[in-house]
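Re: beginner question about structure tokens

> Can someone show what the tokenized structure looks like for a real chain? I only ever see the sequence side.

Sure, here's an example I had lying around. Input first:
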Amino acid sequence: MISSILLAAGQSKRMLGENKLIKEFRGMPLINHSINNILYSDIDELIIVLGFQSEIVKKLIKKNDKIKFIFNKDFEAGMSSSIKVGINGLSNKSEAFFISLADMPMVNKNIYNKLIISKTDKEIIVPTYKGQQGNPILFSISMKKKIMNISGDVGAKNILKLCKSKILNVETNDESITKGFNTPKSFNN
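And the corresponding structure tokens:
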């Protein structure tokens, strides 16, 4: 079973008072693009970690049997707290899991599927674009304990620094893996 943990708890601090996940992008709220891309891929389970304005965000998401919502009561503590909450919500059957970012709406199902197919004996599969590492990152379940030790407002990048020998970089030829929507200007493209 392949799972995806979608981090959707952040406070959109660089958005001048707007919540980027509920902001309209190409005809629908930004978060729905990210969710659809994951659901159309070959993942079996989608864990959505909510925090900031959780009720507003949750109302925008269509029900789906693959989706499980988890609330991170410590979302203000930063990204690592949301990752841990998501990991704790993984199915016991999960063999590997993505850490996905809700503010990356252009990462399509093909990226997810390419990373799943690329799964080897390496414990971390990272998409790259022209050599630059991006998101989402696929982790073997064997990495669970190590990831649970991260802290602060950091994501999986810290794990990558510590575990270079466990990484398989997969060239995607797709710039979207490096493009997050963090500022109002991001929505103008």
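Each token stands for a local structural state, so reading them left to right follows the chain. The longest strand covers residues 2-8.
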